[in-house]
Amino acid sequence: MSSNLQFGDVQTDVDSERYSAHHKPASSFASRSRYLDHELQIINPRRWALNLPGRDFRFEWEDLVPAIAGTIGIIAMYSAVMSSYAAAYGLGPEFVVENVRVEMLVSASLFCILVSGFLNPRANLAGNHGPMIPMIGMIAAAGGHPLALAILLGGFGLALSLCKGGSRLVKLTSDGVAGGLLIFLGFVGSSGQIKSLLSWGSDINMGYVATFILFISIVLYAFLARIGKRWLAIPVCAVTGGIIAALMGAPFEFHTTPGLPNLNPAYWWGSTETGWKLGMPTVEHFIASLPFALLAVAMWSPDFLGHRIFQEMNYPEKAERALMDVDDTMTGCSVRQIVGAAFGGGNVTSSWGTYMIPAAIAKRPIPGGAILLGSICIIVAILGYPMDIAIWPPVMTIALLAGVFLPLLEAGMQMVKDAKSSQSAGICIFASMAVNPVFGWAVTMLLDNNGLIGDKDRPNHLTLADRIIIPGLTLLVCLGAMLAVGMIPGIPALLG
């Protein structure tokens, strides 16, 4: 499917009962794949209105795959964020567990189930902003405040979504630039997960366990791809990795007991003795948090772009109404950022990649898996014990490797189709390696839209705003935010 589809369009001229009127049982189709394709082609979710199972969508057993994958991924990401905050602010492990539970309950009940499941299934789930995790220490050192950051990030995100800026930026990103971005993210993520697993094996003096798990995972992934079942990679590879590690004697212990977190905002923000122990943010906190909020929102568009393209590459023709709407997703992420922080959470949110990527491969629309994912997250957050399994390296790293980063790498290579797109992709990768992927995306988009790289005829089909004004402002905002927080190599942070 072409990546030049219209973003943000709502099919108001289509019968609201289109899905239920056109649904056919799976037995009516020659194969399961054709049935899933048909479901994607007939779904017509209501935008910011009530969608009901049976009338507007159905649950299929394939929905369990992205639900499980998303749960594993989000536990790992939330744990990484809260551990970074705990280290930066001198908080204990109890803070980490309780805050992860807060984030899981809020995101699962209000946004996975309510928003993406029932109110707007074209808004992808609001998950975690992985590239911001390394920034946590900088935020604390600069005098930032998690609540101030959340309010600013949510406000900027809402402003961008209301003016449809997110979808505009995605439309201005060519296949070559997008392919280069996906290749870079996939390669860096894959190598990072491999190094993480090998490091875990070395730490427990059982390096052979990590090597054997990687070997088996490669074989399993290749086999699943060969038989057309690559969407099963996360549960199959992750479970196999955990079983192999356990059978070979790798150490594992349960630490997280059943329980419920404190959801009282006053506990988290009302005192310097409880919760975050920071109190309410001041004007100085907002000023210190400003560049990080700008940077986070600037990173949203390339993040959303990768997820939307993954759907386009795996969905059949005429499945436009099943694709995530970039602006609606941005609205959901913005509101989720503010609401989650109000309840005490510290997550920095973005489009939920560990859900969307396996959902796209499994050929499933958003709502069914979103409701299942939210339900699983609530159960896991209350029980506690499954959280320990999900963040065990043989499970977590293999799940992220097989379900997110390898598919990103493959998708990027598929988008680079000719010499023109390969040139844009190569420059994007080079710029991303030199600075970071946000800079790589922004600078390559500006060059590509003006015909300086890639397709020389591309500027002829774009307006002045699309060629210079919007890409130029995007690059300036990204550069300003990165200079302020010290993300440009060789240049110290201007802030502080």
UniProtKB/TrEMBL annotation:
Question: Which keywords does UniProt give here?
Answer: Membrane, Transmembrane, Transmembrane helix
| Family annotation (InterPro entries) | DUF3360
Q: Where are the transmembrane segments?
A: 64-88, 100-120, 132-160, 172-194, 206-224, 231-252, 286-305, 366-385, 391-413, 425-447, 467-495
Pfam families, per the entry: DUF3360
Cytoplasm as a keyword of this entry, yes or no, is: no
Domain of life of the native organism: Bacteria
Tell me the protein's name: Membrane protein
